[in-house]
What we know:
alpha+beta, CATH 2.40.50.140, 5-stranded mixed barrel, 45% helix, rod-shaped
Amino acid sequence: MDPWLIWLIVGAVLAVAEIFTLTVALGMLGGAALVTAGSAAVGLPLPWQFLVFTVVATVSLLFLRPVALRHVRRPHAERFGVDALVGRAAYAVSEVTALGGRVRIGGEEWTARPYDETLVIPPGTTVDVIEISGATALVYPRE
């Protein structure tokens, strides 16, 4: 069997193993094996093939893997859905009391109650969305 085909098979096996481990290391080694397969295909002798594999694997593990892991493990800073509404400004469309009311949040009308149930928020007041409870925004007037 040709050496380039062996390197290609090794690279494919490492890539498949990476899918199951998600460590990024096996993927880097699989990439190094694919680069080595290319060097073997152009006729590089076997000792030089091992040197190419070693250099590419070392460089990728030392320099590319930390960058890849930073991108994989970075927490998602963006909120979405109703969580994205918390902290936004809203406009009281109707009077907001403990019994109910309406506010406009980013172009959509929501049912609302004051976060502090003793408050009565008049229409036209700018409020902050403190919490979303079901389909109701709990709001507090801005000062």
